[in-house]
């Protein structure tokens, strides 16, 4: 009698487990599908999902874990600065005013309006990374209708007086690992994260 009930429970367990696995696969597929559809870079998102599901993420070296963040930041900063002279020495020197003809016409930059500010906002990707102001592009786009007139005023005055706001010149430099030994600073490349508002003035 007990053995017969045990067999029944086993059948129920197998059927329940099979249904659970089916629903789990379906739910994961829906989740990944929604993630890809909402991504600005779908190919990059697909590769990220493949790495997650197959467990083939790049191995992380713990060589920097116990290091003081400020000391580590200064090490990267000094390394990147030391690379600049080598880059400059490899560039062919050309006279600054070489082959520039004289032009007596003055160049004037036309002012921008709120509609143009809105168009620029629509053209920007919804990135969540941010510069030193810690305000990502996605937040600026979301709040743009509340600050577009202020932003328009700042940009027009910058063009009128030829002054670029100092705060918008600052960039957050982030080292990105390429390949090889994680402890070798030469195996990292820098990317520059600029303030989101700077993109409106640049365009």
Q: What does it look like?
A:
This protein is mainly alpha-helical. The protein folds into 2 domains: 2-54; 69-93 and 110-202, no CATH class. 55% of the residues lie in helices and 6% in strands. The chain has 6 helices and 2 strands. The chain has helices spanning 2-37, 42-54, 69-89, 114-123, 137-161, 196-202; strands at residues 172-177, 188-193. A two-stranded antiparallel ribbon has the order 1-2. The N and C termini lie far apart (80 Å). 6% of the residues are buried. The model has no long low-confidence stretch (mean pLDDT 79).
Give me some keywords for this one.
2 domains; 2 strands; two-stranded antiparallel sheet; extended; 55% helix; single chain; mainly alpha; 203 residues
Q: How many domains make up the coordinates?
A: 2
Please report the number of helical segments: 6
Segments where pLDDT lies below 50 for 5+ residues?
none
Strand content: 5-15%
Distance between the termini: 80 Å
Question: For the CA atoms, what is the radius of gyration?
Answer: 27 Å
Mean pLDDT: 79
